[in-house]
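Structure ticket #2291
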Amino acid sequence: DNAFNFVLEATAIYYEDLAYFLHSSKERVSVVLANKIKSYARSLNIKTKTDKVDSKIIAGFGIERELDEWKPMSPVYKELRDFCREYLSIKKEMNRAKNQLHAMTRSHNKTNRIQKLKKRQIGFYQKTLQSIEMELNRIVEEDPLLKEKITKLESIPGIGFETAVILASETNGFELITSIRQLVSYVGLDVEFKESGKFKGKTRITKKGNSRIRQALFMPAMSATRFNEHIKTLHERICERNPEVKKKGVVAGMRKLLIYAFVIWKKDVVYDRKYVWS
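Resolution: structure written out below.
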């Protein structure tokens, strides 16, 4: 057995180079989510924050807890993830540019050249997205097993090709996900309650998880509330209970789509509209 266990905090992508290096050197590596380290530090009543103090906290966490060993992503999922993240980033920028153009067309006496520049910018984003979509299709087509898995995810009403690929790549093919609860927490769609005595706070999702999956699921969930019978029923029930916050119904749809995708991937089956989900 190795004498050391290297514990790293998952801060964006900055831990990855070191994690890959240590793994290639046959060292045991564990990667811990930042919110877990933060909660651990709070339990120790540590208020000072320096690199040296943070290192001691992470080391203490690794000594006290039995942590899973980190494993690198497969090359295929790594490539897919990189393309998907760029896809989501550009799509976000394109939507922002479209909103800006919409505002320009309704503003008083806006310079036409500015509007033309904005349209050219949107056109560039659209061509880039098309190029990335072609790359995603190429990668999936070259792996028959992956293609079959993605096709089964697409059988879920509301899940399209890009969303299916994002789900697969951001979870490394759901490899380290062992339960629905763990997956929902990983994505940040788990609900937190704040209640003490007579005080009852609002329930809301934690958002302490993979924001890219949440971003990818929002529009599919909107679509599923109309075209997926099970999610449509769920959405209507949630909105009836919370008429003032209808977005809760969409969030519930996002969570349900995520669960469907997980179960279908693990069981290697297609979506069955008549199946009764317990």
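Closing remark: The beta strands are 5-10, 28-33, 191-192, 195-196, 199-200, 204-205.
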